Amino acid sequence: MTQDVSSDSLPGVVAGDFSGATVRYGGVEALMHRDASGRFVMTFAPEGGGGKSVDAVVVRAVGSRRYQQYLAEVDGVLWRLPVAFHIEEKRWFHMNGAFLTPDPGPNDNVNAPAAGTSAGAGAGPGPGAGMDVDDASVPRFGGGAFDRHVTRWNDNCVFCHNVAPNPGHDSHTGAFRTSVAELGIACEACHGPGAEHVQVNQDPLRRYELRLLGVADPTIVNPSRLSPSRSADVCGRCHGQRMTDNVSAFMTNGDPFVSGDDLALYSAPLWRDTSLRGEAGVFASRFWDDGTPRLTAYEYQGLLQSRCAERGTLTCTTCHGMHDGNPRGQIRPLARGDRACTSCHVSLAATAAVALHTHHDPAGPGARCVSCHMPRIVYGVLDIHPSHRIEIPNPKRAITTHRPDACTLCHVDKDRAWAVTERAHLWPDAGHLGAARSGEAAPSDDHLSPRHAIYAGDPVVRAVAADAVGRAPLPSEAAAGDRALRARAGMLLDAMEGDRYPAVRHLAARALAVLIAAREPSVRRKAIAFEATGPAGDRARAMVELRQALFLPSASGSDALRIAALRADAAHADIDIGE
């Protein structure tokens, strides 16, 4: 997860292309190259030349599977650089393409000092709000909006990407003497300090005695032997953004939590109504109106809200195993598919029971437990993830709390009033959760059905909708399937063309590639190659090619007016995902 970088770093440590690749964004061009001594360097300069360039020597890399970020040292402090490499897509992107902030506006002064950074701007997964960063202390790389996501590693990223993090901040001098037990996520992150364990187990007789007696080794923590709540705390330390009452102690001496501790002794999870320095509503945008998390790094909060954890023994390791399977999700082999749920809900394991319970084809995606009970409504860096609040789907409640509902995330061509009515029809015994009372009209909030939400709402709403439009099954009947494909492709093209948020544009392009994969493989390649953070002119040319290839012109007439009206209601608000 975290590795030092030098001119003699082994192949694979640095995933990015430093052979002269460039990224242009917000009036700045970043050049990734290696200098005469072999060091990995990013050079930032105003587009078109004529301005002063800044060289940043990469000294550390963070990330190894999905994307990789890079750190440079300035006056003894490590700063995250504003350009990252997408490992899976093998391309560079500006960090604005990962976080929920819009493109720079026409009045943004690129050559000015950074207007603010994400360092200290909100609570991170570590101790909370971190420390305020004076703009004057933030190094200038590209300047202005280009540097928006420059972040100080020492009191931000360090907390969750390493073992035993300690910023080592000196409150008198302001200096950092940051230390970690080990860079990256290693054994002691989950199992606690291991020095004594290693020492005493050099005695083979001790090992055999423990094994024969069937006794757990008290010198090491095994999360699977902890109570469900203490086991969840091990994961919640990083996968549940939190706040501490004494930030300065964390900054000076590090995070005291070790596996097996009660996390609540040191910090409390953030919620929608958590205040920061007496200010209310600071974190509200990170949750749906009913308190359900809608950003990653809040999985712990979702678990705490789940009835399976409140009333049962569900914990993180019920489904996830750090030593199991594909690193994408690290789902235990015995928890894949529906088995994570049917291991407890055994009566729903049989095919006939699935059909009766779900009213969907037991072999189809609509019958999968997670489709309904863990819908994909959570924004993570460049992806949409399942919610970790396990709950009974309820379209009526989703409307009243202004959040997406599981039904229309699959049935994207339907509106939410349909979802309320259909739920009441299919599950009449649960009518109090969704059915309208006699004489009561079904509530409608069509702005949040995906076919409208892709234009309206805030960036999370639009990102979730774009992902759903590309992922939802098409009608099986050929003519209906063709009509739906064209309509959905048109929505995604509109989002790629008109959304101010590069993260939403990226997800729309990826969704388009998924949607047309089987029918338009050559166009799929064009959609995958779409550069969401590329220069506006390049994006415009790419859109012309895509529309011509799909025979889908830009919206006009009443369709254009409808989209414009929806976009007028869209919220252009920055959402600090807290990283």
Question: What would you note in describing this structure?
Answer:
The chain has 579 residues and is an alpha+beta fold. Among the domains are: 2-182, no CATH class; 450-568, no CATH class. 32% of the residues lie in helices and 12% in strands. The protein contains 22 helices and 16 strands. Strands 1, 2, 3, 4, 5, 6, 7, 8, 9 and 10 form a ten-stranded antiparallel β-sheet that branches. Strands 11-12 form a two-stranded antiparallel sheet. A two-stranded antiparallel ribbon has the order 13-14. A hairpin with a 5-residue loop joins strand 3 (28-34) and strand 4 (40-46). Helix 17 packs parallel to helix 19 (502-515), helix 18 packs antiparallel against helix 19 (502-515) and helix 18 runs antiparallel to helix 21. The chain is globular and about 70 Å long. The chain starts with a strand and ends in an 11-residue tail after the last helix.
